[in-house]
Amino acid sequence: MDARQISGEMPAKESSAEKLARLRAELTRQGVAGFIVPRADEHQGEYVPPSAARLGWLTGFTGSAGLAVVLRDKAAVFVDGRYTLQAEAQVDGALFERRHLVEQPATDWIAANLKAGETLAYDPWLLTPGEVERYRAACARAGGKLAALAANPVDAIWRDRPAPPASPTVPHPLEFAGKSSDDKRRALAQRLASDKLDAAVLTAPDSIAWLLNVRGGDVEYSPLPLSFAILHADAAVDLFIDRRKLSPELARHLGHQVRHSEPADLGAALAALGRAKKRVLADPATCASWIFDRLSESGATIQRGADPCQLPKACKNAAELAGTRQAHRRDGAALTRFLAWLAREAPGGKLTEIAASDRLERFRSDGEHFKGLSFPTISGAGANGAIVHYRASRESERRLEDGTLYLVDSGAQYLDGTTDVTRTVAIGKPSAEMRDRFTRVLKGHIALAACRFPQGTTGSQLDALARKPLWDVGLDYDHGTGHGVGSYLGVHEGPQRIAKTPNAQPLLSGMIVSDEPGYYKTGEYGIRIENLVVVTHGANTNGKPILGFETLTLAPYDRALIDLALLDATEAAWIDAYHARVRAELTPLVDKETAAWLATATRKLSSA
Q1: Residue 329 to residue 406: CA distance in whole angstroms
Q2: pLDDT value at position 544?
Q3: Does pTM surpass 0.85?
Q4: Which residues contact 454 (CB under 8 A, 6 or more apart)?
């Protein structure tokens, strides 16, 4: 403890320049020329605990995807299209080049800037094997090499690094899970045995939470207990978790086939599998390179393949679907209460982004089984709505002013389901351009929601349906159209998605995905419309199963933004039918004032 702390004075906050200088000194001490700083923890999850937020601590960038590469004389931050504007606002351009993660990849930058003979280092806990292979090839192109470090140099200089989380892990009731952990473990163990595998290494906390029917609170927004596990072919599980998270109740819930150890014991357990010459399944997309290194060094035969929990977790069972429908009704009632309140409060011009999102959270917190938000609410007024993953702060927030658009993307975690919904609302009278763009986004949203497709179709094959109305006038959006959603788990989950990028996973009955096309005019406004939908079976055609979508989200669209001249009769009928359903299902759940507003908001498009 330094003198300032002893006297009660807090140490001065370090600048990014000071942190970068100290990191470079640490890299020199460790004998390497550079270091890769991903936005990842040991579990490769979307949300990381504060103790693992290395990229944010070093660069100031707080988005959920990105990385930095630091060399002796230059550095760069790489983010995808969702975060371009955020990176410009948060990252000092004098210290870090700001580059597009896809169009200007880190591998090209490394190949161009690493000097011949130099070593670029990485933490093997924070990169997957595929990432390591790509960075090694980039270093080779530059005439350098890639090397793993035993100790992360960022951790070595992070003076006020938070402690790792240790939130309680609790059982997830069978009424919500729909299937016991014993049944899940036996089903997956049978698959391992039939594939002549002895074990599977699980490092994704949502997979472990699903498999064992447990939930936790180690990261924000997702009820995850950070842990590792080894599932054996006899259905036994070795769970590696901080013992401070356990309780007698949890031990009874897990039963005798689930053995507990500390995370530090994982390496020895992997080495034991190797010494026994076991065949072990590990997912190269979710397991850290460290896992593969330890298994390989100890003599195990590694079968590279998908996390065995991923697909059955994505295909929700009947109880999970019943629960998510109930959660969406309560969530829709909360959002509708908010929209009615917004219609009363926004015209005064005094309402701010944070005040609006705080009120929405209060409405949600009134609902049964509410456990918190499923991600940070995106509450963007005017130009802030054009920042795809905007997060309001006291410095950045705007007022909801007349003649602007307000975009609110939000969701909640309930014991029986996870929600994610976006609505765009006109504050005052919208411009003709705003109505045109909104209606084109809505047309794409409807095209996807209403489509029918043969079994075996992937989300990549459907993505263009949501974009075509924008493509017709030379417009597009720089993000995916749909992501998978968990059942009181992550608001983003795979393997399903709807996006331009190729995805081999077909959409299957029971999968929940988002339907969220958008349009963003930098410096002026943003538009996004999002519902969650579930894949359902339709009638067979010529003997081949046909699938479709059932819309789960219940909340009205802003009629003031709909240009009827751009809609065809089928689209108008779809909106009217959806609004009739919203009105019927939500009216019994809201107060009289909100019900009156809802009746007006959901009236037929043909009415005045």
Answers
A1: 23
A2: 83
A3: yes
A4: 541, 544, 545, 546, 547
Amino acid 324 reads T
Give 170-313's CATH code, choosing from 3.90.180.10, 3.40.350.10, 1.20.1600.10, 3.30.428.10.
3.40.350.10
Q: Which CATH architecture has domain 3-157?
A: 3-Layer(aba) Sandwich (3.40)
Pairing verdict, β 119-122 and 34-38:
parallel
Q: Enumerate the domain spans of the chain.
A: 3-157, 170-313, 315-601
Instruction: Round to whole Å and give the CA distance between 324 and 329.
Output: 9
Distances (CA, A) of 497 to 97, 402, 479, 512: 30, 36, 12, 10
Cis geometry, peptide bond prior to residue 153 (ω within 30 degrees of 0) = no
pLDDT in tens, 96-143: 999 998 889 999 999 999 999 999 999 999 999 999 999 999 999 999
Helix (H, G, I), strand (E, B) or coil at 513: strand
CA trace torsion 315, 320, 321, 323 (10° rounding): -160
CATH architecture of 315-601: Alpha-Beta Complex (3.90)
Residue with tokens 């937020």: 53
Rounded distance, CA 276 to CA 333, Å?
56
Q: For residues 165 and 493, give the distance between their C-alpha atoms in angstroms, rounded to a whole number.
A: 22
Specify whether the CB–CB gap between 523 and 386 falls below 8 A: yes
The average pLDDT across 212-216 equals 97
Measure the CA–CA gap between 553 and 421, rounded to whole angstroms.
7
Q: How far apart are CA 582 and CA 562, in angstroms?
A: 17
